[in-house]
Structures are given as structure tokens and as C-alpha cells.
Amino acid sequence: MLNLYFSVCGQPSPSLNTRIVGGQAAPAGSWPWQVSLHRSSSHFCGGSLINSQWVLTAAHCVRGVNGGTVTVYLGRQSQQGSNPNEVSRTAAQIISHPNYDVQSSNNDIALLRLSAPVTFTSYISPVCLAAAGSIFSSGVNSWITGWGNIGSGVPLPSPQNLMEVEVPVVGNTQCKSSYGDSAITDNMICAGLLEGGKDSCQGDSGGPMVSKQGDRWIQSGIVSFGEGCAQPNLPGVYTRVSQYESWINSLINTNQPGFITFTSNGMDGRLSQKLKLKGNESLQV
Fold first, then answer.
1. From 30, 36, 48, 205, the catalytic residue
2. In this structure, are residues 108 and 175 in contact, taking their beta carbons and an 8 Å threshold?
3. What are phi and psi of 280, to 5 degrees?
4. Which long-range contacts (CB under 8 A, 24 or more apart) does 101-107 make?
5. Which of 60, 267, 269, 281 has its CB 3.0 to 4.6 Å from that of 277, i.e. a possible disulfide?
């Protein structure tokens, strides 16, 4: 049993969580933490809800952007047409990591504070975040979601529904062999099929990469960069969320996000879970 004091992160509504295995379109409510960031009425990046008033995204998405110009849509399914489960907020504050490097994409992470808290529903709820010390071994199944292009230069067709794709984690050693030793830092995590064909793409930036452990979805990465989209031997590169637990908690003083330590034993899928509770207690489940 989970400790009742622990947050309700990473748990989509069971009645809505019927996913199309191997498919592309994500059923409504499958990823209730997914947000869409808009400027001038256009989607430009994704993000993830991590508590009632904060969103996690990539620093490159909001570089040079004023908070008041960004609208955050939560509970959105389609970029065109009606979204009956949607609410919106403006970004009252944008905080990029102070050590974000534009050239290398190191520390590509930012926080957005919403203009007002949101009420959690079956379609709007926070994701859990990978705690410091989390281990995502090669082959761990991960899901990426977003409204980005479906190929290099190929926009998502109407009605532009939220898309999902499953990709395995690629170890940093393998990823360095693709991009070069200096290009991939410990603050990054890679994922994708080495034969290509599945990947995040332009417009997905800032969105979450998540893996399931027990009954919780845990965000391991933030869509950051890649060479093209779904190219062979060029996996997608993501900001490694577990490296930023202290930074995130230093900025969110109340109602802190739910951090969970993710552990995996290689490629066999066996997982164990440790929840990090208030007061630095831990609970094996």
C-alpha cells in the first residue's frame, strides 16, 4: 500500500487509461500531465504538470520568452476543434536553469509557474518525477507524447490529436557513440530505436518522456534535441530529470512534486520501487 501522505502523481484515471498498443493517437486522459504551450495562438512546445501550479519544460523552449506571452493549456487533446476537458492559464513566471548552455543543450530545463493553481481531474493531474539516484537502464520502455511533427518537416495532420510513441532507453555509452563523447553529458538521457522509425520531433520539445513503475508513471526525461527525427543510430536526447531534484525543490517551496526513485535491472524489465516520502523517509512497495 502507498503511504496516504504521498501525492497522487503519475496515475491516470483507470477508466480512461485504455491505450492503443503500438498505435499513434493517444486516448483522452491517457497522459493527464501533458500540457501545450502557446504563443500568438500557436503551439510551440510541450511540458508536464508536476503539481497544481508548476509545469516542467525545456529551457530552449522559453529562451528569451516573457511569461505573460505564454498560454498553458491543460487537459487538451486536440490542437484543432473543441477540448471539453481543457483549462488554460498564463505563465506568471518562467525560470530557466542558470547553467543552461545554448550551444551544448546541457541543463536544458525550465519551470513555469501558472497564474493560478489548477484543480486535478481525470484529464488534468501531475506526473511523478524521477528522483536523484534513479536508474534507467538500456532497454527500459519509455513513452513520449506531444503534438510535434510526425517526420522531418512533416506536420501533424488535422485534427492534430495528441500523439504517443513507445521507445526504449539507449544507454549513454551507446548514445555517445552516435553523437560524440562530449555531446552527451550525465545530465542527458537518450531513447529511441537504433534502426530509426520512432522518435520525438520538432514541436514535441519540452514534453515528457515517462516510464511506468508499479502503478506510477515517472518522468525520466524532457524532450531536448536530436539529429533529424527518427534517424537510424541517432536516438532522441532528453534532459535527465533525476539530476534536478534539488534544483526543482529549491524553487517550489510548498506542495512539492512527487519524486520517486526508479530502478531497473537491465533489459529484462524487472523493476523495484522506492517512494521518497516527506521527512526523508522511504517506503518499499
1. 205
2. no
3. 60, 20
4. 102/60, 102/63, 104/183, 104/185, 105/60, 105/188, 105/224, 105/225, 105/237, 106/185, 106/187, 106/188, 107/59, 107/187, 107/239
5. 281
Under the banding of pLDDT at 50, 70 and 90, the label for residue 24 is low
- Let me know if 181 is a catalytic residue: no
pLDDT at 283 over 50: no
Q: Which domains does the chain have, with CATH numbers?
A: 34-124+244-253 (2.40.10.10), 128-242+262-284 (2.40.10.10)
Radius of gyration of the chain (CA): 17
Instruction: Give the number of other Cβ atoms within 10 Å of residue 17's Cβ.
Output: 15
Q: What angle do CA 187, 190, 193 make, to 5 degrees?
A: 180
Q: Which of 30, 38, 97, 108 is catalytic?
A: 108
Closest by alpha carbon to 147, among 188, 192, 91, 206? 206
pLDDT tens digits, one per residue of 134-146: 999 999 999 999 9
- The pLDDT tens digits of the residues spanning 43-54 come to 999 999 999 999
Identify whether 205 is a catalytic site residue.
yes
For 69, half-sphere exposure in the C-beta direction (CA atoms, 13 angstrom radius) is: 10
Q: Which one of 60, 125, 178, 199 is the catalytic residue?
A: 60
Say which amino acid occupies 93: Q
pTM across the whole model = 0.88
C-beta atoms surrounding 9 within 10 Å: 23
Q: Are 271 and 214 in contact (CB under 8 A)?
A: yes
